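If you are new to this repository, start here. Below is one unmodified record pulled from the training split, so you can see the exact layout before writing a loader.
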Amino acid sequence: MEQRRNESQIDDIYITNNMLPNISKPVLESAKRITNSDHKIIVFEWQPLKQIKQYRTKKRKRVIYLYKETSEERWEEFRREIEQSLEQAENTIKEEIKDEERLNKC
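And here is the target side for that same chain:
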């Protein structure tokens, strides 16, 4: 009668993308001499000091607010716009959520 061996495997090994160019190809080595086990050891070399140029991609332009140069009239206009936006959001929420079914859709 043949005995079945329990086998296991590593499903995933997670590393960051910027580490990939700095590691060698993984090699499986026997652990028999070290631990008297039939398990395998994954061995790879990582060179963390290897320089990689990475350029940040600019997705959008920055908006710079000049608070010190904003007039009182402009601040008042801004306050009214914010109040209107908040009132509209409150009214929309009150109208939309009238029952459990609508609540679950939000």
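Two things worth knowing about this chain: The two ends are 61 Å apart (CA to CA). The beta strands are 27-30, 40-43.
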